């Protein structure tokens, strides 16, 4: 039996007895033992498989550029990151933008605004739409990452990735969504068009906020694994899956407002198995 066939046999066996992902976890641990982490291989792994919770923060920090590929530099770099975090937080306290009573996600927002040169003149100034996006992502990330320094840096770099790497791609996602929904269920798309709902779907929630506040944590982590590792198109396939999941309810609604309101307030208990989202030509 060849090495590949042995691996395939073991994978099938593990899955049947309830240990799905054992082989993938071992593969990731091997990648993480390299003296110099291979970014391309880590991206490929994250695209194909959900990251184990115990390694997710580390992999995200490496892929987002918070940590360098070299293991020996990790401790020192994180020390610098922690010092920068403390300095920015101290500056905000001095100018009285935050206090001990300030919610943590708002602290993260003020830190981000200060570092990006967008801190308003007064804490009482109304928030911009981009601030609301940041807060939604921060609130979801806070549930995933316990350490406040790690959490801030991951939020900061995740949002920067959306605003830079995906800046040109995100506006194209509604059109891609329409194309893929047409392939999956043209009748459902026709109903949305009849109700003039296509242009009014909650695209900001789905694509700008990357489903923050829409999906449960376990599912959101799996989606964000893909976003962090280089694929924002996964957001399109998740949106299509949501429409297909709630097809009967959506088909029963006859106005764009009712459809949008329903989708904004509908929460999937969990995403279907990854294979079901990636079949029929959907990328991993």
Automatic annotation (TrEMBL):
Keyword Glycoprotein: no
Cross-referenced InterPro entries: Rab-GAP-TBC_dom, Rab-GAP_TBC_sf, TBC1D7, TBC1D7_dom2
SUPFAM superfamilies, alphabetized: Ypt/Rab-GAP domain of gyp1p (SSF47923)
Residue ranges of domain Rab-GAP TBC in the record: 50-231
Keywords carried by this UniProt record: Cytoplasm, Cytoplasmic vesicle, GTPase activation, Lysosome, Membrane
GO BP, sorted A to Z: negative regulation of TOR signaling
Major site of localization recorded for this protein: cytoplasm
Record has Electron transport as a keyword: no
Subcellular location field: Cytoplasm, Cytosol; Cytoplasmic vesicle; Lysosome membrane
Pfam families reported in the protein's UniProt record: RabGAP-TBC (PF00566)
One cellular component term from this protein's GO annotations in UniProt: cytosol
Function: Non-catalytic component of the TSC-TBC complex, a multiprotein complex that acts as a negative regulator of the canonical mTORC1 complex, an evolutionarily conserved central nutrient sensor that stimulates anabolic reactions and macromolecule biosynthesis to promote cellular biomass generation and growth. The TSC-TBC complex acts as a GTPase-activating protein (GAP) for the small GTPase RHEB, a direct activator of the protein kinase activity of mTORC1.
Name of the protein described by the UniProt record: TBC1 domain family member 7
């Amino acid at each position: 039996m060849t090495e590949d066939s042995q691996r395939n046999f073991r994978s099938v066996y593990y899955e049947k007895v309830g240990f799905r992902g054992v082989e993938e976890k071992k593969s990731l641990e091997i990648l993480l033992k390299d003296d110099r982490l291979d970014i391309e291989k880590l991206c490929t792994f994250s695209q194909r498989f959900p990251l184990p919770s115990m390694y997710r923060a580390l992999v995200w920090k490496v892929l987002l550029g918070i940590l360098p590929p070299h293991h020996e530099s990790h401790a020192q770099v994180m020390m610098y990151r922690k010092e920068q975090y403390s300095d920015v937080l101290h500056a905000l306290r001095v100018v009285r933008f935050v206090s001990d009573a300030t919610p943590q996600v708002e602290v993260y927002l003020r830190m981000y605004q200060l570092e990006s040169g967008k801190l308003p003149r007064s804490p009482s100034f109304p928030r911009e739409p981009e601030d609301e996006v940041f807060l939604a992502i921060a609130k979801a990330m806070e549930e995933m990452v316990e350490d406040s320094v790690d959490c801030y840096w991951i939020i900061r770099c995740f949002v920067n990735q959306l605003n830079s790497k995906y800046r040109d791609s995100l506006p194209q996602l509604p059109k891609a969504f329409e194309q893929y929904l047409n392939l999956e269920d043209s009748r459902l798309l026709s109903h949305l068009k009849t109700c003039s709902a296509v242009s009014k779907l909650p695209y900001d929630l789905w694509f700008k906020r990357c489903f923050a506040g829409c999906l449960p944590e376990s599912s959101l982590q799996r989606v964000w694994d893909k976003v962090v590792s280089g694929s924002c198109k996964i957001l399109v396939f998740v949106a299509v899956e949501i429409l297909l999941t709630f097809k009967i309810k959506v088909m029963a609604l006859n106005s764009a407002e009712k459809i949008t309101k329903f989708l904004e307030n509908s929460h999937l208990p969990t995403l279907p198995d990854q294979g079901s989202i990636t079949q029929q030509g959907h990328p991993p």
